[in-house]
Design brief:
heterodimer; A: 289 residues; alpha+beta; Uridine Diphospho-n-acetylenolpyruvylglucosamine Reductase, domain 3; 5-stranded antiparallel sheet; globular; B: alpha+beta; Aldehyde Oxidoreductase, domain 3; Aldehyde Oxidoreductase, domain 4; 30 strands
């Protein structure tokens, strides 16, 4: 792998300084699971200063405020999948993080890196989307907050500037009443790029009336998406079998609508419909009885 | 073998410690003073005339010591094991994307890589023939020796299959298609050539399965005497048939550079280069038709197959031999026609890979058999019980099976019982009818008989040789060129030598294969290592005993009578000597207790013209059973459990035998379900050149509950009673899984193209859902 320069930083300030000092392009290395692979394929980083942010301690770990989980951008998928706070307040994210690659990958790959790499097949994207996650992004010491879905422009592209650093993923805590389901379809059990993920959050009151519903499909659209019209199909209702069929159909119809009809649509559209039905039936099992 | 034998014991592998502790030396571990690093430059065309190769810029790059092209090869321009038609470095034409047009040698790998990027060629494009169909329809000959692009044709004829099909009560006609499969050895090819400072001599190290074949090619192409080409394979990190021609091509390249520069030279392929250049398992298209009487007696079998040979003949004709002959399976059927045609294309060439043309055929045959059974209202086991061969039957190719235990029925019963086939088949068939069920379950079973070694295709040259020497400390040193490629062969050879001499295995030491020490032998291919190597070892042991007995006669008189060697003792008349004493007696009389052993398979009576007779000297019997779950929502297939029951003759080392079977099952699972090179039938390119896209089953995908069953029956046709297991272990696996998936789907034979990936299964799942909707609607209408 050819690079222009390699710098390891231990603080966010040091990162900003390194960015300023760098002459030419910058590549940020978090866990390295994308950078090292891309760099091996071709000389894509040969003019880049590679800045390794993994040693920045403050970017590791999960903290909480009253309403939010604050996940450091360099927290590994393995750490997230076992984190007690994440398991309590955003269990769907713990599950999605545990679905990434293999143990070896999860021990290096970071949630911030997963987002910045912007692969449409990233396993955590659909979970973060339904959680309404936000990103704290720092530029020259100035922090701003953006919805997680807002940074993506197209596959493998974000609107982040070279001197932008995702520092924290903010995830609103879920109440214990929220039911969730995460399904990953891959070609094998581990070390598998998602063919599709479906992430669902569903909250109902004591009467079985839906108070919150977020459902999306990952590894299917050019970027992670949320659909208010899909949410509206169940909110305020006590779901019936017919509702489930309708939601699953509506969600799967988004595929040709948004991604266009491709070779993969023949597979993805019916599978989306099937597993959406499966997910919703599971989540509503007690209501449907 | 009267006394307690070494054979049949789980003796620890002699290479286990070095491999487990990481001290074993593999090809790419080698570092030598002054060694050059090489980089291959591959063709940018799948088919073109090669007008010029421009190396001038590369030669000027820092660190570059030598750049060679095909023009630098002093001798013959092509090599090949059986058919000489392969370039080591292309010089006038390129025939696939894996052809190498130049090789750069530099002081460092990075320098070689940089310089290689500057090499380019002028091409005159030729039509790219990316499938057998295109190649057969085209006027363009890929190899002028084969104007119609057909490089091999083999057929089998028994009775009158056409008439029998007409007369059959029930027939099934089907088409099956298989794909390119990668060996996926964990170690990509790495070869190092070291020139001698004394003479025109080169020593070659690295990952090689067939060193004696490579010696012939290096000799022919580089014009040096065979005695001065020394091959010493390193520890081989997996092969599965794959470390032959590709390793050889790379050996020729680095030998050329080593001889020209007088410096050691090494080439190590990246995974992408390895997949790009190496040969694959043959994609085969089958048209198959079988017929039976109402009572289930199989009466006719026709199997027409076309194999994609790729750019070079490689092993395609012998592969076609096995496809045609072993593809008709272990059935007692009177009327058979099978023909296999190998067609040159501009795809990766195809050659030796574990199974050698039969896993594909068994998959086609066994799925068709299941379809026929279903049509007859029989279960897969009922049909097979009626039709599998037994002692004294004549095989589908005309072989009278009266020379060993024909245990295929027993293998099937054992496998069926272990997976509880008959009960599950009924239960799942019933359960799967429930329209609410989204996860369908299935069981499948498949059978095969594998010819041991090369068969009639190699009539007269199927030979193995060994050199065994007893040293003064009474250790027995074996030098044999049948290489250890991970299967445990070296330890098995040690065990057989101990058995042959009647001594403790601790006495036997095994040399690393070195062509300057071990006599030339046929290669470690065709699941022949144990049987052929065993024959040679037995022969050498006889020779050694004759020499030792000569010493005894000199000391004790001519009438010593019969001498027995067992339990590490030597006994004759009243005498009971230790082996050490007997060895010192021989040395005391200045005898030389060293012997060369040779075994060649007897010439067998196969009529190539008619396609009838004895195609192999002996056979291994195999049955695999698989249980699967098929998710109708996603097309995902979970393999729940597999059984591999085999009769490879006498089991020499049960643990190794089980290891072969575990691996064989996993390999079949990958072939059936997920492995896909992403071949384009337009450009002939492969898109999945590394393991991020070329997916293998992981440890999480292969069931922990997979179970090998050893059903060994000592084979009187083998010196130590053992036959073949390497290839049989994978032969019926893909068939068992696909039969199980098709059973789960309730449509025998429905999915007829490999791999059975998510998309293919989903297509059928959707048909099932549609049918369920129609059924539900008609029920509703009925009620109304």
């Amino acid at each position: 792998m050819k690079i222009r320069n390699f710098i390891q930083v231990k603080t966010v300030e040091a990162f900003h300084e390194a960015v300023k000092a760098a002459n030419g392009s910058i590549a940020i290395l978090a866990g390295g699971t994308d950078v090292l692979v891309n760099g091996r394929e071709d000389d894509v980083y040969k003019d880049c200063t590679v800045i390794d942010i993994f040693p920045i301690e403050e970017l590791h770990g999960v903290r909480e405020t009253e309403n939010m989980l604050l996940i450091g951008a360099c927290t590994t998928h393995e750490a997230i999948s076992h984190d007690p706070l994440v398991k309590q307040y955003a269990p769907i994210l713990a599950e999605a993080s545990g679905a990434v690659g293999s143990l070896q990958t999860r021990n290096r790959a970071t949630i911030g890196g997963n987002l910045a790499n912007a692969s449409p097949a990233a396993d955590t994207m659909s979970a973060l989307a339904v959680l309404h996650a936000e990103l704290v992004i720092e530029r020259d010491g100035e922090a701003r907050v953006e919805p997680m879905t807002a940074i993506f422009t197209k596959p493998y592209k974000t609107n982040l500037a070279p001197n932008d650093l995702i520092t924290t993923i903010r995830v609103p805590k879920l109440s214990p009443n929220v039911r969730y389901d995460y399904i990953k379809v891959g070609r094998r059990k581990v070390l598998s790029i998602s063919r599709m993920t479906v992430a669902t959050l569903l909250e109902m009151d004591d009467e079985g009336v839906v108070t919150r519903f977020d459902m999306t499909v990952g590894a299917t659209f050019p970027r992670p998406m949320l659909f208010p019209d899909i949410s509206a199909m169940l909110v305020g209702k006590r779901p019936t079998e017919q509702d489930i069929l309708d939601v699953a159909k509506a969600l799967s119809d988004k595929i040709p609508e948004i991604a266009g009809i491709r070779k993969s649509t023949v597979y993805k559209q019916p599978v989306c419909r099937n597993i959406s039905e499966r997910s919703l039936r599971k989540l509503c099992a007690d209501i449907l009885k | 073998m009267k006394s307690p034998s070494t054979l049949g014991k789980n003796i620890e592998r002699i290479d286990a410690r070095a491999k487990a502790e990481g001290t074993a030396i593999y090809g790419a571990d080698i570092r030598l003073t002054n060694m050059l690093f090489c980089k291959n430059v591959y063709s940018e065309r799948a088919h073109a005339k090669l007008l010029a190769v421009h190396i001038e810029e590369a030669e000027k790059m820092p660190g570059v010591v030598k750049v060679v092209t095909g023009k630098d090869i002093p001798g013959a321009k092509m090599f090949g094991e059986l058919f000489i038609d392969q370039y080591a470095i292309a010089y006038d034409r390129v025939r696939y994307f894996g052809d190498v047009i130049a090789v750069v040698a530099a002081e460092t790998q990075e320098q070689a890589n940089e310089a290689a990027k500057l090499i380019y060629a002028d091409y005159e494009d030729l039509p790219v023939l990316a499938s057998p169909k295109m190649a057969m329809e085209s006027d363009v000959a890929i190899n002028p020796d084969y104007p119609d692009n057909i490089c091999g044709e083999v057929h089998v004829n028994k009775g009158d299959s056409e008439a029998a099909l007409k007369e059959a009560d029930v027939t099934v006609k089907a088409k099956y298609i298989t794909h390119f499969v990668e060996h996926a050895y964990i170690e990509p090819e790495s070869i190092t050539a070291v020139p001698s400072p004394m003479r025109d001599e080169v020593t070659v190290y690295g990952s090689m399965q067939a060193p004696y074949n490579a010696r012939i090619s290096i000799h022919r192409m580089l014009n040096i005497p065979m005695s001065q080409i020394i091959l010493r394979p390193s520890s081989v990190g997996g092969s599965f048939g794959g470390k032959i021609e590709t390793a050889e091509a790379n050996a020729i390249r680095v030998c050329l550079i080593a001889l020209l520069t007088k410096r050691p030279a090494q080439v190590t392929l990246t995974r992408e280069e390895s997949i790009r250049e190496s040969y694959k398992r043959h994609p085969i298209e089958f048209d198959i038709e079988i017929g039976a009487k109402k009572d289930g007696t199989m009466t006719a079998l026709r199997m027409i197959s076309f194999l994609d040979a790729g750019a070079y003949t490689n092993m395609s004709p012998p592969v076609a031999f096995k496809t045609a002959i072993l593809g008709v399976g272990p059935y007692n059927v009177d009327n058979v026609h099978s023909s296999s045609t190998a067609v040159l294309t501009n795809n990766n060439h195809t050659g030796s890979m574990r199974g050698f043309g039969t896993p594909q055929a068994i998959y086609a045959l066994e799925n068709t058999v299941d379809t026929l059974a279903a049509k007859l209202g029989m279960t897969p086991t009922e049909f097979r019980r009626k039709n599998l061969l037994k002692n004294g039957d004549v095989s589908a190719c005309g072989h009278l099976m009266d020379f060993h235990e024909v245990s295929i029925r027993d293998c099937m019963e054992k496998a069926a019982e272990a997976i509880d086939f008959d009960r599950k088949f009924k239960q799942y068939k019933e359960e799967n009818k429930d329209p609410r069920r989204r996860i369908l379950r299935g069981v499948g079973i498949s059978t095969s008989m594998r010819g041991a070694s090369v068969g009639a295709d190699g009539n007269g040259f199927d030979v193995a040789r060994v050199l065994i020497e007893i040293l003064k400390d009474a250790s027995i040193h074996v030098n044999i060129g049948l290489v250890e490629i991970g299967q445990g062969l070296r330890t098995v050879q040690m065990m057989m030598a101990a058995e042959g001499m009647g001594v403790n295995p601790e006495r036997v030491t095994m040399g690393e294969t070195d062509t300057s020490r071990s006599p030339a032998t046929g290669a470690c291919i065709a699941s022949r290592g144990t049987m052929l190597g065993g024959g040679a070892i037995a022969d050498a042991c006889r020779g050694l005993k004759t020499i030792l007995n000569q010493g005894l006669s000199m000391k004790y008189g001519d009438d010593i009578g019969e001498v027995t060697y067992e339990d590490d003792r030597v006994r004759f008349g009243e005498h009971d000597l230790s082996f050490d004493e007997v060895v010192s007696i021989a040395y005391g009389y200045n005898l030389t207790p060293a012997a060369v052993g040779t075994y060649s398979v007897p010439v067998i009576d196969w009529d190539e013209e008619k396609g009838f007779g004895e195609p192999f000297y002996s056979y291994t019997y195999s049955c695999h059973a698989a249980e699967v779950e098929v998710d109708l929502d996603t097309g995902y297939v979970t393999v729940v459990k597999m059984i591999g029951c085999h009769d490879p003759g006498r089991i020499i080392n049960p643990q190794f035998a089980k290891g072969q079977i575990y691996g064989g099952l996993a390999m079949g699972q990958g072939m059936a379900l997920i492995e896909d090179l992403g071949h384009s039938d337009r450009t002939a390119a492969l898109s999945n050149l590394n393991f991020n896209n070329y997916l293998l089953p992981t440890a999480m995908d292969v069931p922990d509950t997979n179970m090998p069953i050893l059903n060994g029956h000592t084979d009187p046709r083998s010196a130590f009673g053992g036959r073949s297991l390497g290839e049989p272990a994978t032969e019926p696996a893909a068939a068992a899984i696909t039969c199980a998936v098709n059973m789960a789907l309730g449509k025998p034979g429905a999915i007829n193209e490999l791999p059975f990936d998510l998309e293919r299964v989903m297509e059928i799942a959707q048909e099932i859902d549609k049918q369920r909707d129609i059924d539900a609607a008609s029920v509703a209408a009925g009620k109304a």
